[in-house]
């Protein structure tokens, strides 16, 4: 017989004695009054009643504590997982706006303008005029957006904004040139 099956065999054999011990324990708890239990606690006596009440109290407190901490932990965890937002200064915001405008013009309008200039002669007169006015309007809108960015007192930002304005104006000149040539 292996060790596990021997343990199971012995446990089954001893079940009646275990049940008997539990019944005696329960009977001893039934015979104790509340005053005796309080007296045992006050005098730090270890009795079946004080052990049972202590274990029950500790288990209950642990359960309540873990429940309360798990109820509040998603809030705590989400705060810990989130990186604190860094405050952006006015200069940083202005720089981001200038760069964003440049990126937008480069990605949204420059390829379309290049395509327009490349295919200008194949377009109908109405299509040429419509697209010309559209690009002029959109580039002007971006220039106005740049004009609204506050760069007072910051020469670097002012220079950056001037460079982006010049970049947009160069594309406006390209559009004017192709229109005048044809």
UniProtKB/TrEMBL annotation:
Pfam families: BAG (PF02179). Residues 71-90 are annotated as: Disordered. Coiled coil: none annotated. InterPro entries: BAG_dom_sf (IPR036533), BAG_domain (IPR003103). The chain crosses the membrane at residues 49-70. It comes from the Eukaryota. Residues 76-90 have a biased composition (Basic residues). GO terms for molecular function: protein-folding chaperone binding. Residues 129-179 form the BAG domain. Keywords: Membrane, Transmembrane, Transmembrane helix. This is HSP70 co-chaperone Snl1p.
